[in-house]
Each structure stands twice: as C-alpha cells, then as structure tokens.
Amino acid sequence: MRRRVDLQRLEAELDARGHALPGRLLAARECEALRRRFHDDASFRSTIDMEPRRFGRGRYRYFAYPLPKPVQALREALYPPLAAIANRWQERLGRLERFEPTLAGFLARCHAAGQTRPTPLLLHYDAGDYNRLHQDVYGAIAFPLQVAIVLSREGPEYTGGEFLLAESRPRMQTRVNAIRLGLGEAIVFPNAVRPVASPRGGSRAEMRHGVSELLTGERTTLGLIFHDAK
User: Fold this and answer.
1) What domains appear along the chain, each with residue ranges and CATH number?
2) What is the pTM of this model?
3) 210, 186, 179: which is closest to 30 by C-alpha?
C-alpha cells in the first residue's frame, strides 16, 4: 500500500460525505499488473457478465484464493482501521455485532458461518458499459465498509465512468454523488447503510453504489470487499 491511512480524517470524511478519498494506494506498475491479470483465468473463481443478469453492462471476476499479493496486502492493511470505524458505527446504529481487530479473525468467523468464497474482484468496462446501483452483502455476515481502486487512467484510457454513490434518508429524496478517481486512487464507502445525524439524535441512511456509463475506451477497477461469500 502506497500510503498510511489517516484514521481520523477517513472517519471525518465518511461522516460528513458518506465516502472518503484516502488518495493513491497503488503505483502505476501495480495497476498495470492487476489490469493484465483480468485475462488470466486461473486467478479467478467466477466471472459475471452483467447484462444478462440486468446488473448493467460489463464483466467482473472474483479472485480465487490465494489472492494476488498486492490485493491480499491491501485487504489486510485496510481492514484494521476500517474495523475501528465500523465498530463505532455499530454502536451508533444500536447493533450488538462487533468486528474483530484483524482480517484473519474476521474471516475465521465468516468461514465458520459457511462464507468461504473470496470476494475481492476486478471489474472491466468498455465504452457503453455501466453498473446499476446496488449493494454488496453476500451473506449474514457483512462488513459495512468497502474500497474501490481505479486501475486505468482517465483521459488517455477512458472517459466517463464516474463512481456513483446514492444515499437515501427517511423523509428525504435520494442524494447522488459522482466521484472521479485518478490512477491508483481509492474510495472508501458503505456497502449498505451508515449512521447519520438527525433532529432526533441519529438515524440510518441506505447506501447504494454503481458506475455511470463509460463514454470511451476501457476501464478496470479493483474492488475490495472484506467479508467472504457463501
């Protein structure tokens, strides 16, 4: 990972905007190596063509274990600071579940519950492709934060394809943010819900994410989900 995560700044951004931008986490050569890996069938446990399932247009592929070293390293390094934030969110949401301090401990609980399939993935979009708003849950145990890192250069390699984040609060219309990310830059965002302040003290916002239509070129993104799937 290219930089140390500032936990206080990360949490402040998540509380204020519903997402956080920790900056560049992968170098250009690491992005290129992961982009090339999209075509290596042996690296993946499954491939999803989005259009027949009405998820959007494009393809994504879930890595098989063992994960590539940069993906495993990112997952292990990002989980502890995000778990600290997630546990504070759980308290604010009035939930009893707490998340283990290490990724290994958390995944042991996932695997004991039958969630054993890895969820980190690569998503590939060509011109005209997009990803409908959705949530990534995959089972009874779901970590509330996840990360996306763009592996392509906006401009020289693609245009369009903004990261979309939609937030729905009680008695409010949906708010949508469109975020542009540079090569190797990351966004941290909720997978399903987040706590928000309200006149009555606190409530929850429903969160969904997606990708707008890619206008030209092609783009690959790394998705880091911390819980495994059934």
Assistant:
1) 7-224 (2.60.120.620)
2) 0.95
3) 186
